[in-house]
TrEMBL record:
Its EC number is 6.3.4.18. The gene is purK. Residues 97-289 form the ATP-grasp domain. Catalyzes the ATP-dependent conversion of 5-aminoimidazole ribonucleotide (AIR) and HCO(3)- to N5-carboxyaminoimidazole ribonucleotide (N5-CAIR). The keyword Ligase applies. ATP binds at residues 93, 133, 138-144, 176-179, 184, 207, 259-260. One of its GO terms (cellular component) is cytosol. InterPro entries: ATP-grasp, ATP-grasp_carboxylate-amine, ATP_grasp_subdomain_1, PreATP-grasp_dom_sf, PurK, PurK_C, PurT/PurK_preATP-grasp, Rudment_hybrid_motif. It is an enzyme of class 6 (ligase). Keywords: ATP-binding, Ligase, Nucleotide-binding, Purine biosynthesis. It catalyses: 5-amino-1-(5-phospho-beta-D-ribosyl)imidazole + hydrogencarbonate + ATP = 5-carboxyamino-1-(5-phospho-D-ribosyl)imidazole + ADP + phosphate + 2 H(+). One of its GO terms (molecular function) is phosphoribosylaminoimidazole carboxylase activity. This is N5-carboxyaminoimidazole ribonucleotide synthase.
Amino acid sequence: MKALTLGSGQLSRMLCLGSTPLNIATLAYDVREQRVVYPVSGDDTGKSFAEAIAWCDVITAEFEHIPEDVLSLADASGKLRPSADAIRTGGDRRREKQMLDNAGVASASYRIIDNKAQYQQAIDELGLPLVLKTAKEGYDGKGQWRLKKDTDIATAWPEIEQLLNSSQGQQAIVAEKFVDFDRELSMIGVRHPCGKIKAYPLTLNHHIDGVLALSVALGDNANLQQQATEKFAAIAESLDYVGVLAIEFFDCDGELLVNEIAPRVHNSGHWTQQGCYSSQFDNHMRAIFDIPIGDTQLIQPTAMINILGEDHIDSDIYCLEGVNVHWYGKGKRAGRKMGHLNVSASSYPLLIDKIERICTLFPAAKLSNISELFKL
Ligand code: ATP
Ligand code: MG
Ligand code: MG
């Protein structure tokens, strides 16, 4: 079995690592450099994109912002899973909001903005505070504006206007009502081509400066897990989805609102590499190759800490019980996702202790007050 991933970053690398035990060989297409590479080493294969498409049995994607010509070529082969439409929905907030509305899944109230009149109308109708997001290309909180007070309205507009004008009709802004959430959760789940769905336990996510810093697999919360699973199923079915899908939620006093979806494996699901018998990478490959889906139950309390902008960690971290270190083989750059740590323990109090120990050995993670952050 042979797979080609669109994108050649860390998600493609971990999909490759998850594929090997299943006897699936993988290559990756570096969309920016237009090269087909080996996903772990990054070495050039010498194959063209067309040759790689012909070589593989299944094509999948590690990100949703794929140039339309690349996506169309992959789609035309009939090998793409999930579908081009599912990927386009995840890559354009206008489509995403429409899909959520059609599927009857609640998200923040919104308006789509293409010009100044619509900008003013959105502000009048939704009121402040507002979060403005570019319809396409945004990630890690980039391409967003916060309108909190009246003076922000005039300050933000010139930048937005310039973006809209320079995009030749490709870009728009989605204005969302600011959600006063208690915490952010995500659900990673998988849908098999036969329609069967399995979800992992909900994950609690903590962001610093718009970037995911820490994820913790939630233990027992049957009510939230059920709510999230129902929304997951409604979304996955409406997209006729195949593979791993991630959904980010705002938890508002026990009611879940969808923030956004990602039609792929997700940073907040990396803990499944050690926290479950079948990781998100393993299950994604199984689903797209029509292999039965594996166990998504939590083995023991598990968390993930992102390593951002660092290519070195204290050697004592390698020796800690229940800790796994994952590097992505990327060049060091400030704030860049360079790797992550998965941390497991036999109970949540012990997990918190272990994360706190890691924080003292790894101050660059900027994590503090762990038990406060996550009222487990
Ligand atoms: P990602 O890297 O997860 O793809 P992104 O750039 O697509 O991120 P969002 O997830 O939409 O952006 O938003 C980034 C963060 O901004 C969210 O995790 C949340 O903390 C905050 N946020 C987004 N939308 C809202 C909202 N409507 N109300 C309040 N906070 C919000
Ligand atoms: Mg996003
Ligand atoms: Mg997000």
